Amino acid sequence: MIRCFLPILIFALTACGGRGDNGSQDGRGGGGKWGGKRSDKVADWRVLVETTSATVGSVANQLVTHGSLESEAMADITAETAGVVTAIKAEEGQTVTRGQVLAVLSNPSLEAGSERARLELSAAERRYDQSQKLHSTGAISDSEFLEAKDAFGIAQASFREASGTRGFTRLTSPVDGTVSARNVRLGELASGATPAFQVVDLNKLRVIVNLSERDLTHLTVGQVVTLSGTYDTTIRSSGSVLRISPVVDELTGTVRVTIAVDPTEDGKPHLRPGQFVEVRIEVDRHTDVVTVPRSAIYWLDGSPIAWRVVDKPEDEKKEKDEEDEETDDGFFSKFFSDDAKEDEEEADPWVGVPRRIAERVNLTLGYTDADKAEVAAGIDAGDLVVTVGGDNLRPDAAVKLPGDPSPAKPKKGKDKSKSDKDAGEKG
Question: What is the pTM of this model?
Answer without folding.
Answer: 0.58
